[in-house]
Amino acid sequence: MKHTLSVLVENKPGVLTRVAGLFARRGYNIDSLAVGMTENPAISRMTIVVDGDEYVIQQVTKQLDKLIDVIQVLDITSEQYVERELILIRVNASPSVRGEIMQIVDIFRARIVDIGKDSLIIEATGDLGKINAIESSMKPFGIMEVVRTGKVAMVRGPKNDNE
Amino acid sequence: MTVQTLKTEVIGNGIGGITKEKVEIEKERMRGADMVVRALEDEGVQVVFGFPGGAVLPLYDALYDSKKLKHVLTRHEQGAVHAADGYARTSGKVGVCIATSGPGATNMVTGLTNAYMDSVPVVAITGQVPLSSIGKDSFQEADITGITLPITKYNFLVKSVEEIVPTIQKAFYIAKTGRPGPVLIDLPKDLTLCEAEYNHNGNFDIPGYRLPEMSGNGVLVKVVDLISQAEKPVICAGGGILKSGSEKELLALAEQLDIPVAVTLMGKSAFPENHRLFLGMVGMHGTAYANYAVSECDLLVGIGMRFADRVTGNVSNFASNGKIVHIDIDPAEIDKNVITDLHVVGDARAVLSRILELAGQKHLPAWNGKIAAWKEEHPLNYENKGEGLKPQFVVEKINEITGGKAFITTEVGQHQMWASHYYKSVVPRSFVTSGGLGTMGFGLPAALGVQIANPEAVVFDIAGDGSIQMNIQELCTAVQYQLPVNVAILNNRYLGMVRQWQELFHDSRYSQTDISCQPDFVALAKAYGCDALRVDNEEDVLPALEQAIASPKPFVIDFWVEREENVFPMVPAGGSINKMIRG
Fold this sequence. Notes:
With 163 residues, chain A is α+β, with helices and mostly antiparallel strands. Chain A has helices at residues 15-26, 54-66, 95-107, 128-138, and strands at 2-10, 29-37, 43-51, 70-75, 81-92, 111-115, 119-126, 143-148, 152-155. Chain B has 3 domains: 32-197, 3-Layer(aba) Sandwich (Rossmann fold); 217-377, TPP-binding domain (Rossmann fold), CATH 3.40.50.1220; 391-560, Thiamin diphosphate (ThDP)-binding fold, Pyr/PP domains (Rossmann fold, 3-Layer(aba) Sandwich), CATH 3.40.50. The longest helix of chain B has 15 residues, at 77-91. The model of chain B is unreliable at 1-24 (pLDDT under 50).
């Protein structure tokens, strides 16, 4: 099962390497990892989606917690939370299909952010389901390139860093 | 070094009138290199092991003036880190070692991994090329913080002269607290030449480093309930007992509840081996009775140990007739290798003290009677028909002559297991061996650290002829610093443990394990300036040992033992521990 871990780390060089190295060394699989600074510039938040059974998730959590640069590990999978991912899709778009693509883009409340001679770049944000849906709906037109940020997540309600 | 005295005039506005006081704050400006030396002194360090080089020239220049720090020049950086490791294990202090950048630093990698696997508090300081040269593949540049990332508890690359002292403070704190481990500080050369103000105080913040909180009383009550209900309990004690200094509590608990105690290799010397409740070592080369007891017990209490594969064998059959309680300071060890029924996170000493308060008295005559019968029926022994010198006999004699009160270090292989079987340690922390990593070449440099930490003690490195050659250059260090360590080489002209596996599992095809081509160890030891003897028969063993112990010089005894003697009992890798090959 996929778990979403919200991990606070010190914002300094080498921390990402330590986290990534831990996953590699112990044979855990990262589905996605997104990292950025928090409201406190000394601290970054990593949102890590990891696939594994209960044993693996428990080990991942404990081993992450053991890293000295890791300040807090929260498994928010069972919490109410907002998740978002951003995707950029470069899709084949000859003038004859552009209208159709634009309709789909509207349905997903996505945006066209660049137009080339025979292609468009589409930007969409949303949860995993929406991102996967827009990606697959573009497939028939011919996807040239995809860039995804990985998921970021925030627990609903009041700030719960200390939970 | 310049001393600047700042006179600060503080005018306080006291209620009873105006008060004036002059506060003199001494701020010393010094080079980064001098800061390192001073900070080490302020951490209470008395001895450092190391080897100089280009990137640590300023640091060695500063060491030249130190009155408080004794520097021990090993002949290889690996020797320095093993010596610091042996020093740390037997002194209870942090072991400190120094190497230069590049190859100096990479030579420390094995030693750091060794300290990491066995949870030994070591601080390693490596020189690094100047900050401006980092990343340019400069001469003797190696990304040592990158290399040692997975084999240190933590590491630092210092980026400014102001960071030097706080970094050293953090390194010592991290190395010695919680589950101990090695910490590396990589120090660019230019920073050691910059000047700044020295400021050593306890103020540092490591936001992500929290010492594990001890489990609450509720779980301890449950543990005590399980123990009091158990009819066939076994305690398995690991290195955590020795690290937390809880051997007295362990002994008290075992006696109060009449529970037999098995040890892991790292736990050897945590429980007096002449005690009636002592089971010996458990696992791959455990005693038959320890392995039978663990396999049949209805409750196994693992304390300060991590259920390593050498202990458990086939995990699914390990202690499968009983419940498992795990007590350890590292939460990440809980349920990692063996899924436990109950666990307590905490320092072994604190946890054992609480359990002792809560637990009642108990007598287990039936269970201990059964174990006594196993001991009778399957003792630890070897055949000695007198056709040649048996390695086990040599270890027995070392045990006899020292009364189990010497400090023993070992290399890795057959001799290590014979030492663990036939040397009966009675002094806590007196058996120093490479348990987790299994590092050949550990014993001799470790013995130097042990001897420095315990100047009056008798120290023996029980070695093999293969392992001793991996760091034999440290004999020179022993001679230079007049360390009267004794090296007992159990010389079978084989890489014996590998040969044993080849005999048992590869049809005696001795691929690359015959090392009959070897130096004359007596001549070699003498060339280094040690005293040395060769012994190839039983009668000469005791006199040779007596001579070695009496000698003020480092002493090497080359014991020519039977070539194809095997270590038994033995559980084949991955087998169940109650299914032993008995020889």
